[in-house]
Specification:
It contains 8 helices and no strands. The chain starts with a helix and ends in a 9-residue tail after the last helix. The protein is mostly helical and 139 residues long. The protein folds into 2 domains: 52 residues, lambda repressor-like DNA-binding domains (434 Repressor (Amino-terminal Domain)); 60 residues, no CATH class.
Length: 139
């Protein structure tokens, strides 16, 4: 059973190109301890997850944001998203209902090729990398 902390440690370790044994040496623990955390067999504290992620060369930011489930808040959030991408996502979900697994993967690959070079996709990636809100233009 995986846990959020274990998943974060595994993802950071993989992105850093480290083995469990290598991370264990950096952390001053055993490879089996890292394996137990990653697999969710042992609970990992937030402090330990942050420390291990940092040892992999990454920072983990945690924020508490106010939650607003009102219709207006949802509409405002949706209005800021790329309309063409939302329409394409809905169409892809509808189309996949009658497809087998391999066909659905092929359909998704086609959509990735089609929309992966779109202006809004590239803007979303650029905004993410610059840690700023995206400015979608529906292109």
């Amino acid at each position: 059973m995986s846990t959020l902390g274990g998943d974060l440690i595994r993802e950071a370790r993989r992105r850093a190109g480290l083995t469990q044994a290598e991370l264990a040496v950096l952390a001053g623990t055993s490879q089996s301890g890292i394996a137990r955390w990653e697999a969710g067999r042992t609970a990992v504290s937030l402090d330990d997850a942050i420390r291990l992620v940092r040892l992999c060369g990454f920072d983990l930011e945690v924020m508490l944001l106010p939650r607003d489930d009102s219709d207006m808040a949802q509409a405002t959030r949706l209005a800021g998203l790329p309309t063409r991408a939302l329409v394409a996502t809905r169409a892809a979900i509808d189309a996949s209902q009658g497809l087998g697994f391999a066909e659905a993967l092929g359909h998704e690959a086609d959509l990735q090729r089609r929309f992966g070079a779109a202006h809004d996709y590239l803007e979303g990636v650029a905004a993410f990398m610059a840690k700023r809100p995206p400015r979608f233009s529906d292109r």
